[in-house]
Amino acid sequence: MYAQQVETGTKAIKSLAEMGPEERAFQEKIDAEIKIEPKNWMPDNYRKTLIRQISQHAHSEIVGMLPEGNWVTRAPTLKRKLQLMAKIQDEAGHGLYLYSAMETLGADRDEEIEKLHSGRAKYSSIFNYPTLNWADMGAVGWLVDGAAIVNQVPLQRTSYGPYSRAMIRVCKEESFHQRQGYEILLHMMRHGTQAQKDMVQDAINRLWWPSLMMFGPSDAESPNSAQSMAWKIKRHTNDELRQRFIDQTIPQLELLGCTVPDPDLKWNEERGHYDFGEIQWEEFYEVLKGNGPCNRERLETRRNAIQDGAWVREAAVAHANKKQKQQAAA
Ligand code: FAQ
């Protein structure tokens, strides 16, 4: 029955009748909202899908530190610098938390990170865009963390226990990030010079469409959605979440006194939602192929960071080994 409930995506999924007894029992557990834990039986593809999604999510958090890291040295005040550094550290924490959740599925962290560095793993398209002015720090917090929250709040109810529990903490921190981002923009719009107000509008103009792309391809073009919805890894489709984000963001945009670069955006009374213009999907797929404005720079920065930090990891291992020997001898 669950198969009929999911009409999205480009790949067909199995019906209960087509499943073997183990898989059927697994699906019934999911349908009864019982969480799947690391030691429980799970279909290979459920495990693979989760490793794919959680590793991509972890990589996004880690690469996502770079566009904001770009502004730490140029934050306008000490207070803003401290806030920005705290936010970036939170994102690092989310990445590490998510890699740990991924490891509970038997994946190897070093191997997954190597896939990222060799360009074989994906991470969120949004982090391949540059951050060109201080208002981008507000717009990233407001729009990028805002989109991340809309996507991640339902993931608190995802079917895999460790992922769902990780999301509870991550969402609390992301909500705070979204507010601090919005406050930067509100401050610039209310107290800034005309040049600063123009920066806000410029940041929104550049980041609006890439933020909408964060939710992934449209439902009709999404290969993974049907199965992920049936397994309750995803609780809503890409298009549902994109619409939810737009509906809740436009009133905030109006309060700022700004606009989005979409002449087709308008409230649709009948649907009870905003209508919006066509997303440039060619641009999205080019970014996924590695051809966005900053893809190469981002991966190079991550590769350098791993190389430059090698001595710290080696020293930590040497220290741990020495301590272990001392404890064994005592
Ligand atoms: N960018 O069939 P679907 C953050 C890929 S965290 C790149 O629809 P799915 C915090 C997709 O992986 C942001 N690739 O796939 C922060 C799939 O690839 P594959 C990250 C994308 O998985 C804020 C293919 O396209 N959040 O921002 C994108 O069912 C500020 C087909 O797509 C998460 O990862 C994209 N935008 O749905 C940090 C949340 N969209 O492997 C720092 C968890 C799709 O089949 C600063 N993830 N693709 O070749 C999810 O909810 C899902 O994975 C989706 C994609 C919704 C992203």
From TrEMBL:
<dbReference type="InterPro" id="IPR011881">
    <property type="entry name" value="PaaA"/>
</dbReference>
<keyword id="KW-0560">Oxidoreductase</keyword>
<protein>
    <submittedName>
        <fullName>1,2-phenylacetyl-CoA epoxidase subunit A</fullName>
        <ecNumber>1.14.13.149</ecNumber>
    </submittedName>
</protein>
<dbReference type="GO" id="GO:0010124">
    <property type="term" value="P:phenylacetate catabolic process"/>
</dbReference>
<dbReference type="Pfam" id="PF05138">
    <property type="entry name" value="PaaA_PaaC"/>
</dbReference>
<dbReference type="InterPro" id="IPR009078">
    <property type="entry name" value="Ferritin-like_SF"/>
</dbReference>
<dbReference type="InterPro" id="IPR007814">
    <property type="entry name" value="PaaA_PaaC"/>
</dbReference>
<dbReference type="GO" id="GO:0005829">
    <property type="term" value="C:cytosol"/>
</dbReference>
<dbReference type="InterPro" id="IPR052703">
    <property type="entry name" value="Aromatic_CoA_ox/epox"/>
</dbReference>
<dbReference type="GO" id="GO:0097266">
    <property type="term" value="F:phenylacetyl-CoA 1,2-epoxidase activity"/>
</dbReference>
<dbReference type="InterPro" id="IPR012347">
    <property type="entry name" value="Ferritin-like"/>
</dbReference>
